[in-house]
């Protein structure tokens, strides 16, 4: 089943399995509630979001980076919140490349996803590895042929020459997988994420 393509039934099973585990469901409920406040102007609120998201999803931000990320979001909240509300993929790169210790790409996708789940799929290395297996099966041939964002043998989410386009590349592949497998709109993107993360 590890290399299975997603289907509506398999995604439904993944969601049920996720929801049956308190270790996943309860923290998720807390995060959804916290992120229901879409305006990121209050430091205490943003710091709490960043801290708990980092802890629950093990995004490996250092303590000093949690503070720096929260400060960056508050300082840039007008532009950042506007981009996230519109589903602008550049919001991910803006947050990921905010001047902390390194590029916090995975964390940025998660923060944007909780802020606007209908527009932002979540990236992590587990999902990338599964997409790479699907690529070997030829699923992404059509999208790779039509895009100038792909270089060489691999679609290179992680090492894209145009690094600010990493999330554009990733989302394009997720959307292509979604269409290829003819998945129900209700599973975009959180449901598909549950399946890909399993």
Describe it.
The chain folds into 2 domains: 81 residues, no CATH class; 76 residues, no CATH class. It has 198 residues and is mostly helical. It has 11 helices and no strands. The radius of gyration is 17 Å and the shape is globular.
Give me the secondary-structure topology:
Elements: H1 8-19, H2 22-34, H3 43-56, H4 63-75, H5 77-86, H6 90-96, H7 105-115, H8 125-136, H9 141-146, H10 166-180, H11 190-197
Helix pairs in contact: 1-11, 2-3, 3-4, 6-7
What is the compact description of this entry?
The protein is an all-alpha fold. The protein is built from 11 helices and no strands.
List key phrases describing it.
198 residues; 11 helices; 61% helix; globular
Counted beta strands: 0
Helix fraction by DSSP (H/I, runs of at least 4): 55-70%
Through-space gap between termini = 10 Å
Mean pLDDT: 85
Spans where pLDDT lies below 50 across 5 or more residues: 146-155
Number of helices: 11
**Approximately how much beta-strand content do the residues carry?**
under 5%
Main sheet record: none
Order of helices and strands: HHHHHHHHHHH
Kindly provide the radius of gyration, computed on alpha-carbon positions and rounded to a whole number of angstroms.
17 Å
- Number of spatially distinct domains: 2
Shape annotation: globular
What structural category do the secondary elements indicate?
mainly alpha
């Amino acid at each position: 089943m590890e290399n299975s393509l997603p289907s509506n039934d398999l995604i439904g099973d993944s969601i049920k399995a996720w929801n049956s585990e308190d270790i996943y469901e309860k923290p998720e409920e807390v995060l959804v509630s916290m992120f229901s406040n879409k305006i990121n102007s209050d430091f205490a609120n943003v710091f709490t979001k960043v801290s708990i998201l980092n802890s629950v999803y093990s995004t490996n931000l250092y303590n000093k980076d949690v503070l720096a990320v929260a400060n960056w979001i508050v300082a840039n909240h007008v532009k950042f919140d506007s981009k996230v509300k519109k589903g602008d993929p550049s919001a991910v790169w803006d947050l990921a490349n905010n001047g902390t210790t390194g590029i916090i790409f995975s964390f940025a996708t998660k923060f944007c996803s909780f802020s606007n789940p209908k527009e932002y799929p979540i990236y992590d290395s587990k999902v990338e590895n599964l997409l790479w297996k699907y690529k070997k099966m030829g699923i992404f041939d059509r999208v790779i042929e039509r895009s100038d964002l792909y270089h060489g043998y691999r679609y290179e989410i992680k090492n894209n020459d145009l690094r600010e386009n990493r999330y554009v590349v990733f989302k394009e592949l997720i959307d292509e997988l979604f269409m290829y497998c003819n998945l129900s709109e209700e599973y975009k993107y959180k449901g598909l994420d549950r399946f890909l993360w399993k």
